[in-house]
Amino acid sequence: MTTSGGAARMVPKPVDDPEVAPAVEAEPWPWPVREKVCHQAFLTGSLMTLLLLACFVLGRESASSAIDLAKLTAMNNGTAGLTTNTPHSRGELLGGLLPAGMDQWACQSRYESWQYYKHFPYAASPYLQGKLRAYEARHRWCAPGTPLYAKSVEQLRSGRSAEGMECTYVVWLPFDGLGNRILSMLSGFLYALLTDRVFLAALPPDSADLFCEPFPGTTWRLPVDHDFPIKDLVPRGQHIDKSYTRLLDAKVVGPDANATAGVPAYVYLSMGWQLKDSLFFCGEHQLVLAKVNWLLLYSDLYFAPSLYEVAEFQDELGRLFPEKESVHHLLSRYLLHPANPVWSLVIKYYRSYLAPATRRIGVQIRMYGHSSIPADDMYNQILNCSSQEHILPETTNDDDKAVTPTAVTGGDGNGSNNSTAIFIASLYSDYYKRLGSRYSTPHVAKGGGATRVSVFQRTHEERQATENLAHNQKALVEIYLLSFSEELVTSGLSTFGYVSSGLAGIRPAILLTAFNHKVPETPCRRAVSMEPCNLTPPRGLKCRDKPANEEDLARHIKVCEDFKDGVKFFD
């Protein structure tokens, strides 16, 4: 049922089926206009005349631009809600962040996603761009399937590390849910950039088909087969026999190790929420780890902010990221690109339900066993946060009846009439139903302006199923749908929310956690930095190496808005 004028619209959760025909089916336009002269010519003449002039007068480059422009003009309203202008970090290469020349059809999201993002707060520094291009070249030389990789595996088989190896590695191992995995993956890649290592991912079956290959002409996947020297590669807990601290205690590695025994071929880094290897963040131990050819990273943390506390990394991080708030934002847009099956689900849903609106608001809700509260209290916290931060449309009628939405509407496709789409990401449907009921009856927004409000929820899985590929695909779809919002409300401590807001380039309103099951007096805080929180930073470390610049640390590493024991990057 679609109402007119100031009426709100009710939308039930669509069926999770990639084959459902979306209401808006126009093809997105993946290429930016390169020549203003072509645009002006098109506006003053016919399309055919322009193409002929471009071919015979302006030459090949301008002709290509004219054809691209024709594609844009031929599109219908299916592009409502897309970004089409291309200043600094916009455009298919995100201002030089992404490498050129990769196969567009093998990974459509890499060169299309920029059209759906609404915020481009930071561009990659020239230094970061150069570092990434150098890394890509190193990865091509050292990736699986190359002679240098085969040489490194043989050295690994020998049981000892060797000096002078052309290629050394950081191997990411899966730990915890999708949000945690993404954050630890980004942290591991950043560490590889800082130490000139090659980053490989031991992707399990539940994650194998989530992301595209991020580096041109090569693979980031560690081929874990019967020939790989390390058996049972993924640990079953954070107490790992060959973790750095245990080997240090046994004097197998470290400043006091037996030099005649040699350096082990590999070392585990136990960097999960218990942070068994906190000495990793001391400069003198980084010197020891530099001698190990293979480092196996087992982490569920975003530990990037704590790398800034290592003196040897501080200056380099400053050159890579002059704006510290941009670390996760730029690295996630560089490294993570949904594979085609996931991307097709993202854009079909977006075009069908979110694109027609003039404004999109994402609301991500997550509760934990240690901080659960009744659904009524959580719903009221969301409304109070929205009122405090002026996020959700306010209504003149506050009658929130418990009505289950039943009518389907996909929008009018033209983004008119001040329409708002609210997208709910939650394991449960309670909040979708309550917000749907709130906006189900005709209303006029406060201030007298007519508005249309639609409420959507794609899935409600009821429970997290990390080891299930289909579940992870749905979760990744929702992360990207959230990241295409103009405004976000996320849950405190939620890595899912951290990833979404970082990709979006948004400082979200963060719902504060109900510790000890007590509803917080302040419903939420507006993030001062879009960076994720490192929920388990190293504490009380006594490092012998030179300390980092304390004044710089105090300026850029501060307590998280949503967790007093965590730290994050700030500008």
UniProtKB/TrEMBL annotation:
Record GO terms (molecular function): galactoside 2-alpha-L-fucosyltransferase activity
Keyword DNA repair found: no
Subcellular location: Golgi apparatus, Golgi stack membrane
EC number of this enzyme: 2.4.1.-
Keyword Protein transport on entry: no
Membrane topology value: Single-pass type II membrane protein
Listed InterPro entries: XG_FTase
Pfam family, one: XG_FTase
GO CC term (a single one): Golgi cisterna membrane
GO biological process: cell wall biogenesis; cell wall organization; xyloglucan biosynthetic process
Enzyme superclass (EC): transferase
Family affiliation: Belongs to the glycosyltransferase 37 family.
The protein's role, per its UniProt record: May be involved in cell wall biosynthesis.
Protein name, as recorded: Fucosyltransferase
